[in-house]
Write a structure and sequence with these properties.
The protein has 407 residues and is an all-alpha fold. 67% of the residues lie in helices and 0% in strands. The chain has two domains: 133 residues, no CATH class; 241 residues, Hypothetical protein af1432. The two termini are 48 Å apart.
Amino acid sequence: MSTLIRIEREANSGELEAQDRHNLRVAATAMEIARKLRWSDYKRLALAHASGEHHSTSYSSGTTYWERVIRDVNSQSKIPVRAANLHMETEARELSQVIEMSCLIAKRWEAAPEDLIMWAEIQNEIDQRVKDGLFDERHVHVLRQRGQAGAELIQQVVNTLPVFPTIALQAMQIASDPMAAGRKLEETVNSDAVLAGEILRAANSPAYGVKSPITTIRQAVLLIGMGEACRVIAASLFRPMFQAPALRPLWNHSLEVARLAEACARLANQGDPEEAFLAGLMHDIGRLAMLKTPPEMQSRIKALTDLGCDPLFAEMMMFGFDHCAAGTQVLRSWQIPQPILEAVAAHHAPERSDSVLASQLYLAECWAQGMEDLPSTRRLQSAMDRAGLRPEHQNLLPQVETISAWH
C-alpha cells in the first residue's frame, strides 16, 4: 500500500499525524501543478505516490528511484505503465523539482502561524529560488496564474449576489449611534417593508413575552433596544443569502462569530459592539462567494479538506488567495465602510492590521472553534493584547446576552 493511500484512509478515520498532514499538503500542491501542466495520468500517479514518502529514507531524485515508483504505480493501477514511457533522467529531475518545491511551500505554510509570514512572502521565496536556478519557472508560473483566474471567478459570483441595500446600511449606522434618536431609526426602517417586518417579528418573539402584539416600529425599538435593532437589521440582510441547506452551517457559524465578536468588544470596552456584530456576520462572506463558484472547484476543495488539509490551504491551492481576500472583493463591491472591510481582510492575520476589530474577529473565530487555519499561540496572544482581553475572558463569553431574535 502506498503511503498516500494509507494517509487517505487515516484521514477518513480522523487519525492523522503532523507528518501525514504535511505529506497531504505536499501532494495537494504537487498535484495542482501537475493538473495545470496537463501531465499524463501515469505521471500524476507517480507524483502522488512519491509525495507520500518524500521524507522517507527511500526517497531520491535519482532515476533508479523513479523507475521503482513507476513499477509500484503499475502494480496498483489499471493504467498500463512502463518505465520506458518516461525519459527517465529528464522526468526524474522534473518530478523531484515539483515535490521539492511543494515541500518547501508546505513547510513555510506550516511555520507561518508562529513566524507570522504570509502567502505572498512564501511566493517571493519561491520566486527567488527560480532566479537561483533551483526551481523551474513553468512550475511556479501555474501557481501565479491561480490568483487572476480565482479573482475572475469571485467577481462572477459578486455579480450574482444581491446588491447591498443602502437603506439597510443607513439603519444600522443609526442604530449603532448612541446619540441617535429613535424617531430617526423609525423613519428609516418604516421606508423598507422587509426591515420593518423583521423588527416587528423580533419584538413579538416569545423572548420578550409581550402580552399584546407590537404593531409599530417605535414600540418595537423601545422594547428591544437600539442595539438589538441593529443586530436584527444586520441578520435580516444576510440570512437570505444562506438559505440553501448546504450553507446553513456557514450561517450558524457567522452568527456565532458575530455574537462572540460583539462580546469581545463589550468585555474589553473597545470599539463598537454593534459594528463588531455586523463584522462578525460579514467575516466569512468570502467563503460564501467561494461556495458559489462552479461545482468542479467545490469538489476539488472538498476533496482536499476531507483528506485533512486545512481550509485556508485548500483555498490557496484552488484560488491563489483565501476567503479573507475574496470577502474583501465582495464587501468593496457593496461599498461597506472601510473599518469593517479592513477587519474582514485581516481576520486571519490580525497582526497585519492596526484594526482592533480584526483582532476581535480573530478571537471570536478561534473561540467559536472554526478550525479554518492552523493554530497560532503567538497570533492568539497578539490578538488578545490588541483587543484588551485575557484568556480567562473566554469563560465569560457564554454569559453574554445572546441574540434573542435569531436563536
